[in-house]
């Protein structure tokens, strides 16, 4: 059996992400592994690059991309602080732009993660078709094992 040393937890700041982090923290304690969290934000495709959406704190223009990036970084800061309050130790946190499933799989390979633990919303039917499934795509493309965690138990 492969030894688990590094665990990657991709998050979208939802309840399933919190549950996945809880699982990862438990596994990390059992294996003596480190836990890193990653949030991948998608570049908005509906607004041309460089579009200005308003004035920044210093009076300069702020692009939509900068606004989205800053929002993601702020959300990650809150998520990491909440994890620390719950007693979860993280080695690192990252916020990256890109297509979530592909970026997660690519980074997992580049950085040599032994396990990916991620939450799923468990959508089915039309909502899954329209919104896609990051978890399913990560499972198909990841270079390492993937543990998918549901926030709520499955209803039979």
Task: Report on this structure.
The chain has 156 residues and is of the alpha/beta class. The protein has one domain: HUPs (Rossmann fold). The chain is built from 5 helices and 7 strands; from the N terminus they run E-H-E-E-E-H-E-H-E-H-H-E. It has helices at residues 15-31, 64-85, 100-110, 125-131, 134-141; strands spanning 6-10, 34-41, 52-55, 61-63, 92-97, 115-120, 146-150. The strands form 2 sheets. The chain has a 5-stranded parallel sheet, sandwiched between helices. A two-stranded antiparallel ribbon has the order 3-4. Strand 3 and strand 4 (61-63) form a beta hairpin. The longest helix is centred in the middle third of the chain and has 22 residues, at 64-85. The radius of gyration is 17 Å and the shape is globular. Mean pLDDT is 84; it is low at 125-132.
What sort of overall outline do the alpha carbons produce when their principal axes are compared?
Answer: globular
Binned, the helix content reads 40-55%
Low-confidence stretches: 125-132
Widest beta sheet: strand line-up: 5-2-1-6-7
Average residue-wise pLDDT: 84
* Category by helix and strand content: alpha/beta
What percentage of amino acids are in beta strands?
15-25%
Rg estimate, integer Å: 17 Å
End-to-end Cα distance: 32 Å
> How many domains make up the coordinates?
1
Q: Just name the CATH architecture.
A: 3-Layer(aba) Sandwich
Please trace the helix and strand order, writing H or E for each element.
EHEEEHEHEHHE
Biggest sheet character: 5 strands, parallel
CATH H-level superfamily: HUPs
By DSSP (H or I, 4+ residues per run), the number of helices equals 5
CATH topology: Rossmann fold
How many beta-strand elements?
A: 7
At the first level of CATH, what is the class? Alpha Beta
